[in-house]
Amino acid sequence: MPLLRPARRRSPTTGVPPRSPSISRPWLSSYSSARKRRRTASSPRPGARSRPPCRRASGSAIVSFDAGRAVQEENVIPRLLTPATRICIAPWPRSALAILLSAALLAAACGTDVKEASEVVLARHVHTDLYDAYPGIPSPAGDRVVFADYAADKRSLTVYDVVTGVGRAVTSTPGGRTRVTWSPDGSRVVYVDRQSDRHGVWALDPATGRESRIVDPGDARIDYPRLLPDGTVTALRYAGADTAWVAYAPGVDRAMSVVVDRAGGWVAPVRSPDGRAVAYLRVADGRAALAVTEVATGETRTLAADLRLGWDRRVEWSPTGGALLLAAAGTQDSLFVAWRVPVDGGPAERLERSGRDVLAVTPLADGRVALSVYHTRTAVGLLPVTGGEPTDVTTAGSTAGSTSAFLPSWHPGGEALGFITFSWRRVRMPIDFDLGILDLDAEGAPTGTVRTLLSEEGEDYGAAWSPDDRWLAFHSHMEQSDDIWLVPAGGSERPTRLTHFGPGADTGEPDWSPDGRMLAFSSHGPPLEGNPGSVYAVAVDPATGRAAADPVRVPLDGFQGYAMGARFSPDGERLAFYGRSFEDGRVTVYTVPAAGGRPTVVISFVNGEPYSAPEWSADGASLFYSRNDGVGPFQVWRVGISTGATEQVTTGALGALQPSVSPDGRTLAVTMREAAIEVVALATGSAVAGAGSGGW
Fold first, then answer.
1. pTM confidence score
2. Is the dihedral of CA 409, 411, 415, 421 positive or negative?
3. Each residue of 553-608: pLDDT tens digit?
4. Domain boundaries defined on the chain
């Protein structure tokens, strides 16, 4: 499994994983540095034929039709595309043979890059969620931008004024707010609230923060709402096994009518400016196709296939209705990028954003296009345990500009700092995580550059030195199972597998007991059915580096929740771990005897995800942990075990998490994490560059 990822269940209707408890795994959210894509001048291939124009379907007034029957009658013919192939998918009657683009929309030669002549930053929002990234959506006039954040177990909304740059939280009550859009006149923010007692379509006045439910779907569920200029609300409606694209008329009663029946598999439908067509994504088996359907006739054009999407899925029409805008990844993309797709079947245009993911593409009323871009950086920093702002020690020392670092650990003599290095993309998760090391001088200052200590094929992380400096324990997927492994610290031999949980397990990073004879960690899933997360211990022979016995589950008497992470106290008598409540999702720091027993509550809070295990102070009197209060980045805090008194340890604009105390107890190593969503408006009339990196 990738680094510290919440255990996820997929929605039966949307396919989007809801927030759910997580096993303690290292957090991962960073990108490699900007990789410039090569652009070449666009010129026709010698001897190439001109591409015939696509035939447009006729349409008139909006009427209902059965989309399910139309989809069932499509015949899919796979085609192998060469780089010179140009394909246009024209409308077809439901009874006709459909040619569907099955590999990727418009092979590489079909696409073009749109060069950004200039751009204007509309808003920049520090992202408080450590795993998912949701876009900022500008108003039609581009004067305000709304962001949805998952923090403190509620979906909150923040609206930024573009002129002043000031953001203001406009919601204060818990809710499941998502699918955020604006009303056509920009006066209200429109969204779905998924919270059971609030489910429906809501509108919010950003000036006052007043929320009102404008559509109550009753026992049905709805998603992807759009408020039209006349007050009509369109949305996908799920009633049992039936899915339809519906319209709720203006007025108090909000009479509902079905516009498109049997719309199963549809995602993010949006009506064309003239009202004659609907664009949407059709999702199956983890991939999506971009399609346009004429509402009056049911004729459908598939403009793209084999696309990958982010958590927030949306499609937008250009103001003239001549093109569709979306963020997606084609078959060759390792990032989500912005696309402009002509509805007449012309070449898709790539709105280039080198090195960063584009989460959403939004047209503005003045003709510009706004991109919501994910910006993140991850490094390891040091600070005194008494507190302060961490100093980045890995970025400058890295020989590879695209390498990020996280999850620090200490050499038992304090003479080196270990951490996990990687290069990451949101679309294609890496499988090569290495253990980097940075030497430290007598004062604890870094010397030299980052070097690789452990480099195994696959996902290796959470490496911990044994107290005698003979062994490195780490997590790996080397044999298609999420397990704990051991390797000599010098890396001279092949690793030895200590646990055998098997496929489906999700195991966190290990921690050594002070005597070097035991490793503690957390894991969920197999070997126990219905195991949401438990603390385990495995005995190790320090002479051979082999498991002395099978791992055992540490008894947590009376504990009801998801156990995440595990750390031995300095004397080895107790373990500290996080627990997430089954009932309300609150995160609690616990201690428990190392042999098991009834856990003791140290502190409880609501902040999303803990993203590592609690860390003991050198004297065993306090614990370090990471949290936030629903705004701003995560920071490291300290809590007294006997008193419960807390104090914030880290400061600064960057987030800090995954604390690790040096062997002498004087220095704290943390993962420094910067994450923000930046909304930029591209200049009108951006020049079209060559097709070198265009296409899907």
1. 0.70
2. negative
3. 999 999 988 898 999 999 999 999 999 888 777 889 999 999 999 999 999 987 65
4. 376-677
